[in-house]
Structure formats: C-alpha cells, structure tokens
Amino acid sequence: MTTPDFLFALVGLGALAAAVLPRLVAGRPLSMPLVFLLCGVGIQLLPVPLPDIDPVSGRAWVEHLTEVCLIVSLMGAGLALNRPFGRRRWQATWRQLGITMPLSIAAVGLLAWTLLDWPPAAALLLAAVLAPTDPVLASEVRVGAPTDSEHDEDEVRFALTSEAGLNDGLAFPFVLGAAALAAAGGALTGGGIARWVLVDVLYKCTAGVGAGLAVGWLLGWLFFRAGRWALRLSEHREGFVAVGATFLAYGVTELLHGYGFVAVFVTACRIRAAERAHGYHMVLHDFVEQVERLLTAGLLFLLGAFVAQGGLAPLTWQGALVGVLLLCVVRPLVGWCAQFGTAAGTRERVVIALFGIRGIGSLFYLAHALGAHGFGVPATELWAVVAFVVLASVILHGVTASPVIARLDRLRRHEARVSRPGGEPDEDEVAGKRL
Length: 435
Description:
Low-confidence stretches: none
Number of strands: 0
Largest sheet: none
Shape: globular
Structural class: mainly alpha
CATH topology: Na+/H+ antiporter like fold
Mean pLDDT: 84
Radius of gyration: 21 Å
Number of helices: 16
C-alpha cells in the first residue's frame, strides 16, 4: 500500500464521516471537530508512512487553507442569522466586540509579556491571534438554518454567532499592529501609530463594510430581483452560488486593501436582508455548511496529526498557563462583565462568556503574521502555544457545549409552557425567554 492510496481512502472515509458524525454526536458530550481531532492523533499510531505536518515550513498552505475555511464559515454565519441588523437588536454583539475583545487582547498580551517574558510585539501577536471567537468548532452554540422568523434565535446562539462573524475580521488591526511593532523594533513612533489608526483600523474596516454592503446589494438584486429569469438565480436554486458570492466579496475587498473577512460577513447579512423569507437562503446556507464541514474536518484532522507528531514539544508550562487562563479566566470574566445591560439573562450571560471558542481563525492569523515578520520568539513556540489553546478549546467546549445548550433549551421551553398554560408555545416564544 502506497501513501497516496492510503490518503485517497482516508479522504473518502473522512468525507463520509463528516456527513454522518453531526447526527451521531447530536445531544452527546462530543462534537464532530473533537472526533476528527482525536482521529488525527490516532492515525499516527498506524504503521503507515504519513507526511509530516510542519506549519513553519508549510506556512503558506496553512494560511490559505485556513483562509478558505474561514471565509466560507463567515458566509454561512451571515446567511443563517434571522435577526435584522440594528443597534439595539445587536447590542450583545457590540458589547462583545467593543468590550470583550479589546480587554481580552490586553489581558493576554500582558500575560504573555510577564509570564512568557516575550517581547511586546510577540505578546501582542499572541493576544491578537487568540482574540477571535470561532463557534464553527461547536455547532451547538451557533444559530441554526435560516427561517422566515425574525424572533426565533435565542440570545446565546445569536450573540456567539454574530460575534464570531465580525471579530474574525476585527482581529486583523491588532495582528497588523503587532507586525508593525516588530518591524519598528518594539517601539512605534507617533507616525506609525497614526498610520495604524488611519489605515489599518479606519480605512480597512470601512472598506470591508462598504465593499460588503455593495457586493451584498448587487448580489441580492441578482438573486431575487433581476428582470431576466435567467439572471434571477433564486429561481434556479443552485447552492454553489454561495461560494461564488463568498470569493467575490473577499477578493474585491482585498483588492481594495480592506478587510475581506468583514466584507464576507456583511455581504451575507445584506443578501439575507434582500429577501428575508425566501427559501433560497436555505439552499445557499446548506451548501456552504457542507463545504465548511468538510474543510473544518480536514483542518482538525491535520491539527491532531500535528500534535501527535510532536507539535506541542516546544510548549512550556508558562505557555500552557497563558492558554488556560485565557479560556477559563480572562474570556469568562470580561465576557460576563460585557453582557450587563443586554437582553441576556443571568444564565445566558454565563454561557456567552464561557464559550469563547478558539479555532481556525487563530491558526490563520498566526500563519499570516509569520509570513511577514519575525517576532523575536521561535515560530515553533508560537505554533505550540496557539495549537495548545485550540486543542484545549476543542476538547473543553466540544464536550460541554451540547449538555449546556440542551439544558438552556429545556429551561426555555419549560418557562414558555408555564407562561402559556393550555397550549404548546411556538419557537419564537421559546427563543424569547430570558434565563
């Protein structure tokens, strides 16, 4: 048996498993990403020569593979959200982006600087890389498929999905800030700070939002309102169009030097708003979800193989401690505080705060940053710390997500039945209960 033959069989088996596993693990303290991660570890025990997984020498393919997975998942998240955009409706999202994310970056950067004794650029890079929330790795905490109701999303699923949709792009300014700090030798001048604020923060964020709105409006018209039947793509119900929309929004925005991640999510939300109750959204979402599932399964399998091949060998106890503090102290604490004053109830605030899942976004940002600058820390050590955090998050959140979310769902349904005696509450009433 040759290695290519074995890999073909492995890919086929993995694709079939990605189709079956979500239903097999539903309702259990297990997740599909966790299963594939464990399979990646276990495959190394077989007497078959397998390629080495080295994200340092293979940085470019890691960057682009994770990049594709991210933009596909962002399109899926935007298409799934039923709640219309609004300042008050999205209050939980703004709190997570404006309070939780910056405070988490500051806290992790300080931990890396003090506990790991890393230079400021490396400490900021680690903090920025670990900033994005990634519910793709625990589907139970994401909103479900799109529906024609604007009120059937509970606060936990909506907050985590919308947060992940935007903070995957909003982490970019901090990653670029770390790169600029490294290039400047650890001390930015006033001009460097001004350029970072004006270009990396204001212009690129504005370009991402603007391009996303423009592309989303154009595609919304093309999908639902084009005068010619051949151009009105919603009539033909072809799901792969979602991938075309994803790459178009991302590519155009990147050509304009904006943040493509922001643009993809905004594009998806704008398409969703163009004709909110149309069944074509389900077709687009289902196709994107299938592609995302395959990519995620493959990446988690490779991460497991990387760990089994000794990828965590450069990890120190200080690096592991930083990761544990992020997942168990920093994110829960600042996430809890940020949710005061939102529509979420006490239990819901706890869950939103706890499920700050780290995943594919962290891998992308690290690969991207290491392609431009050195940060005064061995790349293998950076990869070890980030891989450990993702690994710990997949295990911790993958095991707990299903029981915790199922418990909240049961409590909501019970509360809805109590408040409506003599009749079965509908999904909008159940989702609207605050716990």
